[in-house]
């Protein structure tokens, strides 16, 4: 009996420290934000919360901050960049899967962008997007792209696109490497059978390769979407949320209200609104993508 009890309790004892730390890092900040979202607290006037204001902070999120514009920018950036990274990553993974000469060197090079800090990527693309002498500006003009006079980062119509391009350059290799690993673990006999039956490349992609990588791809897309929904580094370095609010994201909005305006109560309310939005989106996504799957 003691031995049986020991066998049952040891796993819980081993997991307990990690669970306690994890819950402390998640529950305490969220509880702190929830409590102070109902208080007026601005560090410019008081180091401590002043008074209970009910839902006034939540109302002010939509009336005194460009929250809806930031939400729109965040959704557009998250959806388009995630789709671009998946499509490009899948293409690179299929290219690696063909076992052409030199693919080992390509796999090693693919690791490099992922290992670069986002803040460094931001400074790199600031120079690449420089209106005078920027390499990307020269390439875009070379292919006939209408580069605005203010530059890609200074124009309201292209600022968000430029951030997406920088993020796609950094994270497409991550998709490619993981999807390539998923292809390597796929049953080779199914692929050989489809080829022997005369399936063309498009049919192979749609009916063989994509279904094989679907479980991995679904998790990758969800993870990257959540990461992009919290985009801050590239926005801060490349555009500062501008021009105007053209490239302001939700995370940059939090930074502006919390660390520039020091409005802690308003920032706490905004945090909980974002948490609810992300939870709804992710739950809808999991219900649609993983419907009917057994775990």
Give the structure's gist in a few sentences:
This protein has 295 residues and is mainly α. It contains 12 helices and 2 strands.
Estimate the strand proportion: under 5%
In this structure, how is the largest beta sheet organized?
2 strands, antiparallel
What is the CATH topology assignment of the domain at 67-247?
Answer: MetI-like fold
Low-confidence stretches: none
Assigned CATH class of the domain at 67-247: Mainly Alpha
What does this structure look like?
The protein is an all-alpha fold. It has a domain at 67-247: Orthogonal Bundle (MetI-like fold), CATH 1.10.3720. 72% of the residues lie in helices and 1% in strands. It has twelve helices and two strands, in the order H-E-E-H-H-H-H-H-H-H-H-H-H-H. Strands 1-2 form a two-stranded antiparallel sheet. Helix 1 (2-36) packs across helix 12 (264-289). The protein is globular and about 75 Å long.
Layout: helices, strands, pairs:
Blueprint: H1 2-36, E1 39-40, E2 51-52, H2 56-63, H3 67-97, H4 103-115, H5 118-128, H6 135-142, H7 159-184, H8 188-196, H9 201-229, H10 233-238, H11 250-260, H12 264-289
Keywords, please?
295 residues; 12 helices; 2 strands
């Amino acid at each position: 009996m003691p031995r049986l009890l020991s066998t049952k309790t040891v796993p819980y004892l081993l997991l307990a420290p990690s669970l306690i730390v994890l819950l402390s890092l998640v529950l305490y900040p969220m509880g702190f934000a929830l409590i102070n979202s109902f208080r007026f607290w601005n560090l410019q006037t008081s180091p401590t919360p002043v008074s209970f204001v009910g839902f006034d902070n939540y109302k002010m999120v939509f009336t005194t901050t460009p929250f809806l514009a930031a939400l729109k920018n965040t959704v557009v950036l998250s959806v388009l960049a995630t789709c671009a990274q998946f499509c490009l990553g899948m293409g690179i993974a299929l290219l690696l899967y063909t076992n052409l000469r030199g693919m080992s060197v390509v796999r090693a090079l693919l690791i490099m962008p992922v290992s670069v800090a986002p803040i460094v990527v931001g400074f790199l693309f600031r120079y690449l997007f420089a209106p005078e002498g920027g390499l990307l500006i020269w390439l875009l003009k070379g292919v006939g792209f209408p580069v605005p006079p203010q530059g890609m980062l200074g124009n309201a119509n292209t600022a968000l696109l430029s951030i997406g391009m920088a993020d796609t350059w950094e994270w497409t290799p991550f998709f490619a490497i993981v999807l390539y690993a998923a292809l390597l673990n796929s049953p080779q006999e199914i692929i050989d059978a489809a080829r022997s039956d005369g399936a063309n490349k498009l049919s192979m992609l749609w009916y063989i390769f994509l279904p094989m990588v679907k479980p991995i791809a679904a998790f990758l897309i969800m993870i990257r979407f959540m990461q992009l929904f919290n985009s801050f580094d590239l926005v801060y370095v490349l555009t500062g949320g501008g021009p105007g609010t053209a490239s302001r994201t939700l995370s940059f909005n939090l930074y502006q209200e919390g660390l520039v305006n020091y409005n802690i109560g308003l920032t706490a309310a905004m945090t909980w609104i974002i948490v609810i939005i992300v939870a709804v989106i992710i739950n809808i996504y999991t219900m649609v993508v993983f419907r009917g799957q057994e775990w």
